[in-house]
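User: structure tokens for this one?
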Amino acid sequence: MLSSLSRFAAFAVAALYFLLGAILFLAPEWASANFAWNVSPMVAMTIGGWCLGNAWAAFVVAKRWRLMLTLSGMIYLALFGILETGVAIAFADKLRLGHWLGWLYVATLAVNLLAALLWLLEWLTRRPGREHSGARLGPVGMIFGVVFVIVVGFLGLYGLLAPEGARGLGGTIFPQVISMFTLRAFGAFYLSVALAPVVLLIVRDRAMMLSHTLLSWGLILFITVAALAFIGEFDFANRPRQWIYLGAYLIVGFFTAIYLLRNPRSMVP
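Assistant:
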């Protein structure tokens, strides 16, 4: 496996995302006024959900620290750091760094990028071996994985590439009007979520799939809680497509919970 330095980097990423996420998630009204760019309290809490989910994923990676169980999680965290940093650079003129919360966001992404670079360099120089669990991912898991990558990947690309004035900015799916900066940040997040499981489809190792499901569970949980906390922002009667946003998390959360409960040993970090 990779070195103890790489493992420490994973713990550092977990700690920073936990700190940032806790602030955004627990104090969204205050955080929205002081965040790195102009966001509503709901968006602030949602980004806090991403960060808390990232903290959980990085903690599981650092705790387990076996390539067979953590590779997809490391890929997700690396992609998230790279893509979200790219979005921040593209909207550098919109960044608000007059408050320490904005700098905490920038510092967290910087540490994420350094960790990703360290993992990549050690992978290239050490070429650590990867053991198989012996159990292979079945056809149902493969089909679910392919559909997940396609659907979530489309959402990610749309968020990153949709032009000004495109659908999705006016509260039709996400229940609030959002800026292009926020749309691009959402796109970077979804594309990271979509691309990380590709390695699962290539390796087809069931233990890796179970581990990825566990480390992804935090994202589903915290983002769903953020949506429910602002349930009053939804207008399902007049904008029924808003069910897509909330319903997707509820459905995926339900089936992933069933999957984990049927394999209780996989739930121990």
